Amino acid sequence: MPEFYNQTRRSASIGGKLLRSGRVLELPVYWLLRTSDLAREGFENSGSYRFADHIYHNRPSGLYGIGHWLDSCLLKMPAVRAFRARYLMARDEVLRFLRERPVDRHLDIASVPCGIPRELVAAAETYQTEGGDLTKVRFHGVDLDPQVLRDAAEFANRASVRLILHRGDALDVSTYADRFDLITSTGFGEFLDDEKLARLYSIFCEILRPGGVMVTSAMRETRVAGYLLELAELHVHYRSEEGIAAFARAAGFVDTFTSNDRSGIQGFLRAIK
After folding, report:
1. Residue 213 domain-assigned?
2. Range of 189's domain?
3. In which band, very low, low, confident or very high, does the pLDDT at 234 lie, cut at 50, 70 and 90?
4. Cα 28 from Cα 179, distance rounded (Å)
5. Please, are residues 120 and 156 in contact by the beta-carbon 8 Å criterion?
6. CA 218 to CA 265: how far, in whole Å?
7. Which residue has the higher pLDDT, 238 or 203?
């Protein structure tokens, strides 16, 4: 059975887990957090694409008024702003790629796994606003979940951006029927152990055309964010941007460029084949 690597929750009930483990004083915090749409999605569907997109969209919502306020507070947390920064980085990298590459042949740009491919759509919209021509640009969304692909296609269609869908495991090279010029993959490698991350980068290097670009991310641990992730049973692998750059070089990428967000929590990597 295919593995959803970001679905790390094991307890049937987080509230029940807190009660069984004697963490009774944390129950009011847990139930209060559930009024926030962001926190509730994190608790109920650990690592879901809706959780990530709520942060990327940056629009607070919740229950009973207090949930909306709490959601707004969570979205302003440094770790959450850093989380959103990876979407902004990926969007800007796609836009830079479109601006810098002469479109004298078809270009293929993929989001893996795509979730809601907000970075592709936002970059495409900005590029067209600037007068750019997307006639020879093909956007691709790769994901294992058929519902995600349906939602991704609907989101892209609303912006008049055509998305070519590929359903399959990102760690299975047979998933990819095409070759690509740019791949964005943010918030996925954090759920992979070292062996799987090395495999992912090797696959990306294989399916990119010569001179192709991989854009990806890494996360450093913080105390408050670490507690909330642990509470939601989101088990991630913390790495530095230099750490993932080493994986990229081992996979065959020739040039690597690293950066991070202002807080230093989120690391970014642009690797060129």
Report:
1. yes
2. 84-221+238-272
3. low
4. 50
5. yes
6. 8
7. 203
